[in-house]
Amino acid sequence: METVRTKTSASARTRSVAFVGLAIAIIAVSAWVTVPLGPIPFTLQMFAVTFAVVVLSPKEAIASIAGYLLLGAVGVPVFSGMRGGIGVLAGPTGGFLWGYLLGVAAAALFLYVVRTKLGVAGGKGAPKLTRAEVAALSPGRRAVLFVRNFGVDIVAGIIFTAIAYACGCIQYMAVGQVDLATAFLTAVAPFMVVDFCKIVAAVVCADAVRAVVK
């Protein structure tokens, strides 16, 4: 019995490490998809990080973003534009990167509390319906089910994004020597609608992955 428990524990640790490594790779690749939009580039990082927060456990999500930032800090080109190094973290847009860590920690803690206490958004007590049962529901009931299943995850994505925005604005103000209004209009406002769409897309994709990876 003890041997079985040991093997199960080792298997779970291996699975967890694999998930963290895969999440780091996805975040890095998403950062390379860059569209110049003024001084702040448009990337898919918000999508990738939100996906990691929703689909992974709190410890795995935090380990993923911490590992990603550590790789970038030592010079591995995992940041936008295939850049790396402390200089990127200390630059005008670096606040968004270290804000990821704070945002992920807050969002993961929020999800842990809600899933544990309320049993929703992927929690153990969350209602699980088959595709046929969902299809049989009225449009109104399906809308309510969507809000119940995805609403909490979307709120978590918003918490992560808001904290990343705040950290990014603060550093952009300090390094660029601009006021809050200029920093907001330059570094945040152009991305808000698109980033919200990324959050919704990440939550939908995460739900599909959760349905496959038990």
Automatic annotation (TrEMBL):
Its main location: membrane. InterPro entries: BioY. It comes from the Bacteria. GO terms for molecular function: biotin transmembrane transporter activity. The keyword Transport applies. It is a multi-pass membrane protein. One of its GO terms (cellular component) is plasma membrane. Gene3D superfamilies: 1.10.1760.20. The chain crosses the membrane at residues 12-33, 39-56, 68-90, 96-114, 150-174, 180-206. Keywords: Cell membrane, Membrane, Transmembrane, Transmembrane helix, Transport. The keyword Protein biosynthesis does not apply. It holds the Pfam family BioY. It is found in: Cell membrane. Belongs to the BioY family. This is Biotin transporter. It comes from Adlercreutzia caecimuris B7.
